[in-house]
Amino acid sequence: MKTFSKLLIGLICVGLAPTLFAHSATEDAEAGIKILFETSPLPAMTQQKSSLVFLVRDMRAEEGAEPVLGTIENAKVMIEHMDSGKSWGPFAVEEARRNPGRFELQKVFAYPGEYEVEITFNRTGEERQVTLHWDTDIADWNGLVLQ
User: Fold this and answer.
1) pTM value?
2) Which H helix or E strand runs over 19?
3) 142: burial class by Cβ within 10 Å (0-12, 13-18, 19+)?
4) Can you tell me the distance from the alpha carbon of 52 to that of 117, in angstroms, rounded to the nearest whole number?
5) Which domains are seen in the chain, by residue range?
6) 20-74 per-position pLDDT tens digit
7) Would you state the torsion angle of the CA atoms of residues 9, 14, 18, 19, taken in this order, to the nearest 10 degrees?
8) Could you tell me which residues come within 8 angstroms of residue 46 by beta carbon, excluding any fewer than 6 positions away?
């Protein structure tokens, strides 16, 4: 029985490994902004609190891709479940005061599947609005529950 448990845990870890470290990045060259997007904890699942994390990097900074407090303002997030077409938001997101460049939105996802996440913002001091998109998958918690 112990061998079976170890084998099962090993298979789950191997199967989830790509998901555990998955994130995506996108940038707007004109605004000089690069954003890394990730969900936490990974894998993101239904029926548990998940965070959508946006790590903003200022590509105009001297070192390049450095986090700079106050790089963007008026950040809002929209979320759409691709299978059902349901959408939520906009949700205002604030920059973490002690963690420059980190924006986080905590939600509980009810539906498994693919979601499109959209963040809209202005670069501080500029009027142009920037909109960036990501796709993320939310796994079904019920698929892991032994009943």
Assistant:
1) 0.73
2) helix 2-20
3) exposed
4) 9
5) 23-143 (2.60.40.1220)
6) 334 567 666 767 777 888 888 777 888 888 888 888 877 766 555 556 667 788 9
7) -20
8) 108, 109, 110, 111, 112, 138, 139, 140, 141, 142
Q: Give me the residue label for tokens 């470290």.
A: 21
* Residues in the chain, overall count: 147
Tokens 């029985």 sit at which residue?
Answer: 1
Tokens of 77: 């997030």
E strand or H helix at 49, and its extent? strand 49-58
CA-to-CA distance for 129 and 74, rounded, in angstroms?
A: 9
User: In the beta sheet, which residues pair with residue 59?
Assistant: none
Record the tokens describing residue 108, joined without a space. Answer: 């509980």
Of 37, 31, 32, the residue nearest 51 (C-alpha):
37
Structure tokens at 46: 């239904």
pLDDT digits (tens, 9 = 90+) for 7-19: 434 434 444 433 3
